[in-house]
Write a structure and sequence with these properties.
Its cofactor is Mg(2+). With 370 residues, this protein is α/β, with parallel strands linked by helices. Helix content is 39%, strand content 17%. It is built from twelve helices and 14 strands. The longest helix is centred in the first third of the chain and has 22 residues. The two termini are 15 Å apart.
Length: 370
C-alpha cells in the first residue's frame, strides 16, 4: 500500500568547496533539510531543499511541527492532493521562501517514492523528453574571481565540452564588468556561451546600460538584472534589450511566473525546484513556459534538476554547481559536456546515510509515525 506510515526530518550543514560570492551576498553555508517518507510496503522516498546560510531551522520546524504530522496516513500516490492540502495549511505564510522550501522537501520525497514504487527513473516518469542535457558552469565565475582566473576556468570548461560559463557581474563600474566579459569572449571565441548574472543588483537605468554592453559580446542571457518583485522594470528592460532576460531563482510560485510570462517581462525562466515548492509546481512552470515558447534553465540543484531538464522539451541547459558530494555516493554522469539523467528508479541520488548521520545538526531532527 502507498499509505505513508512514517516521516523523518533532519538537517545537515554543507560548507561550499570554493568561495561563492555575487553582487549582493556570499554563499557561506548550505543548510540542507532532508525528509524521508516510508509507506506501508516499506518503500522509502527521500527529498530535500536548501538555504544559503540562514533559515534552515525555520524550515525544519515547519516540517516537524506542522506539515509532516498532517501527511501520516495519506496515500503517497496522491501527490497533487497532498501538495495543495499542505499549501492551504500554511496559507498565511505562503507565498514565501520558508513555506516553499518545506513543501519542496516533502514533494521531492513523494516523487522519489512514486518513482521507486513504479520502477522508473524520475526523468521518464515526469515526461521523458530526452536522456541528456548540455551543461554550463557557474563554479568558476564568482564575482571575487580575477579576470585571469575567469578566463582559465572558461577555457577548461570549453575543453571538456561544456556549452558555456556563467560570470557574475555587478562590479562598481561598467568598465570593470566589461573588461571581464571581453577577456573571456576573446579567449573562448564566438561559439561558446557566456551567461551573466547580476543577482538583482541594478536599477532599471543601470541594467539598460549593462545590457547594451553585454550585447557587444553576444552574451546568452542577462540573469536577475533587478529585484525580482519589480515586474514592470523587467518588462521595460526585456522590451528593449538585445540580450535575453532571465529570471526565476528568487520567485516562489506558479503565479509569479505566470505574471512575468503574460507581461513579456522575461525571455528565459529559471525556476528552482526547492524555491517553488517541489517537482509538482516546477513541472507546471516548465509547461507554462513552453506555452509561451520560453525556455526553462533551472537554478542550482543540479543533482535533481538533471532529471527535470531531461523530463521536459524546453530545457536547453543545466547549471553545474556541485552540491551534495559530501553526503552522497553518486555523482552527476557527465560525458562530453552533457549531463545524463540517472537511469535507476527514483531521483537517482544515492544518499550516504552514514555521512548524513555524522553531519546531522543536533536538535533539528524528528520521526513522526502513525
Amino acid at each position: 500500500m502507498a499509505e505513508i506510515v512514517k516521516a523523518e526530518v533532519l538537517m545537515v550543514d554543507l560548507v561550499p568547496k570554493v568561495m561563492r560570492s555575487d553582487a549582493i551576498q556570499s554563499f557561506v553555508s548550505q543548510e540542507t533539510p532532508i525528509v524521508r517518507l516510508t509507506d506501508a510496503d516499506g518503500h522509502a522516498g527521500t527529498g530535500y531543499s536548501y538555504t544559503i546560510g540562514s533559515g534552515g531551522p525555520a524550515v525544519v520546524s515547519l516540517l516537524r511541527d506542522t506539515l509532516l504530522p498532517q501527511i501520516i496516513g495519506c496515500n503517497a500516490d496522491e501527490i497533487e492532493s497532498i501538495w495543495r492540502d499542505l499549501l492551504f495549511t500554511t496559507h498565511a505564510t505562503a507565498v514565501g521562501a520558508i513555506t516553499s522550501l518545506a513543501l519542496a522537501a516533502i514533494d521531492t520525497a513523494l516523487w522519489d517514492l512514486r518513482s521507486l514504487r513504479v520502477g522508473l527513473p524520475l526523468w521518464q516518469l515526469a515526461g521523458g523528453a530526452k536522456p541528456s542535457v548540455p551543461l554550463y558552469s557557474t563554479e568558476g565565475g564568482w564575482l571575487h574571481i580575477t579576470t585571469d582566473a575567469l578566463v582559465a576556468d572558461a577555457l577548461a570548461m570549453q575543453e571538456t565540452g561544456f556549452a558555456g560559463s556563467k560570470i557574475k557581474i555587478g562590479k562598481p563600474s561598467l568598465a570593470e564588468d566589461r573588461a571581464r566579459i571581453k577577456a573571456v569572449r576573446a579567449a573562448v571565441g564566438p561559439d561558446y556561451q557566456i551567461l551573466v548574472d547580476a543577482n538583482q543588483s541594478f536599477t532599471l537605468s543601470e541594467a539598460r546600460r549593462r545590457a547594451d554592453m553585454l550585447a557587444e559580446f553576444d552574451v546568452g542571457w542577462f540573469e536577475e538584472p533587478m529585484p525580482a518583485d519589480d515586474i514592470g522594470a523587467h518588462r521595460q528592460l526585456t522590451a528593449t534589450s538585445r540580450v535575453p532576460i532571465a529570471v526565476g531563482e528568487s520567485m516562489y510560485s506558479l503565479g509569479q511566473f505566470k505574471d512575468y510570462l503574460a507581461m513579456g517581462a522575461c525571455t528565459i525562466v529559471q525556476a528552482d525546484v526547492a524555491r517553488v515548492g517541489g517537482i509538482t509546481p516546477w513541472l507546471k512552470i516548465a509547461h507554462l513556459a513552453e506555452a509561451f515558447n520560453v525556455s526553462i534553465c533551472p537554478h542550482f540543484l543540479m543533482e535533481l534538476h538533471v532529471s527535470l531538464t531531461c523530463a521536459v522539451p524546453n530545457a536547453p541547459m543545466l547549471e553545474y554547481i556541485p552540491q551534495l558530494d559530501d553526503i552522497t555516493t553518486s555523482r552527476l554522469d557527465i560525458r562530453n559536456g552533457r549531463a545524463h539523467a540517472p537511469m535507476v528508479p527514483g531521483l537517482g541520488i544515492a544518499w550516504d546515510w552514514d555521512a548524513i548521520t555524522a553531519r546531522t545538526i543536533a536538535g533539528l531532527s524528528a520521526t513522526i509515525e502513525g
